[in-house]
């Protein structure tokens, strides 16, 4: 998955959760959080190596856009009151943001660590590490 794909997946998944919450409740709720966390994790698992940074950057931006848009559209008052309400809602729903973004960071960090660690020898004649004894020299 490319960087734009990460944005689309996280945005679409989170939007579905937000719309379900809006139509079944009073706005941002646990369904949005579950969909946001799941789509952030999925995007981090599927993103290609060259675009991994997008899987860390996109979820918080998408979260902020959707939560603030929900408050701007769903509340009454002047622009200042809507702005204060939107910024306050970012603080209210912070745990969802931290969990979703943290999950993406952990997945990307693990994938990066896997790429950087040395791999076992492979090829013809190379024995797996578990089958060699301590006395036997490594295959040459």
Oligomeric category: single chain
Helix segment tally:
5
Order of secondary-structure elements: HHHHH
Distance between the termini: 39 Å
Beta content = under 5%
**Helicity range:** over 70%
Question: Would you report the number of β strands?
Answer: 0
- Outline, from the CA principal axes? elongated
Which spans have pLDDT < 50 for at least 5 consecutive residues? none
Q: Averaged pLDDT, please?
A: 85
Indicate the radius of gyration in whole angstroms: 22 Å
Biggest sheet layout: none
Number of domains: 1
Which helices and strands occur, and which strands form pairs?
Blueprint: H1 3-24, H2 30-46, H3 52-74, H4 79-92, H5 94-116
Helix pairs in contact: 1-2, 1-3, 2-3, 2-5, 3-4, 3-5
Structure in a nutshell:
With 140 residues, the protein is mainly alpha-helical. It is 71% helix and 0% strand.
Describe the structure.
This protein has 140 residues and is mainly alpha-helical. Helix content is 71%, strand content 0%. The longest helix is centred in the middle third of the chain and has 23 residues, at 52-74. It is elongated, with a radius of gyration of 22 Å. The model has no long low-confidence stretch (mean pLDDT 85).
């Amino acid at each position: 998955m490319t960087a734009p794909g990460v944005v689309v997946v996280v945005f679409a998944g989170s939007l579905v959760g937000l719309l379900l919450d809006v139509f079944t409740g009073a706005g941002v709720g646990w369904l949005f959080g579950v969909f946001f966390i799941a789509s952030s994790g999925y995007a981090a698992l599927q993103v290609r190596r060259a675009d991994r940074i997008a899987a860390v950057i996109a979820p918080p931006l998408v979260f902020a856009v959707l939560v603030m848009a929900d408050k701007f559209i769903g509340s009454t008052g002047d622009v200042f009151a809507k702005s204060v309400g939107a910024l306050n809602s970012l603080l209210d729903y912070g745990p969802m943001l931290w969990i979703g973004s943290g999950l993406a960071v952990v997945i990307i960090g693990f994938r990066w660590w896997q790429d950087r660690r040395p791999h076992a020898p492979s090829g013809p004649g190379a024995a797996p590490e578990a089958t060699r004894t301590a006395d036997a020299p490594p295959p040459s």
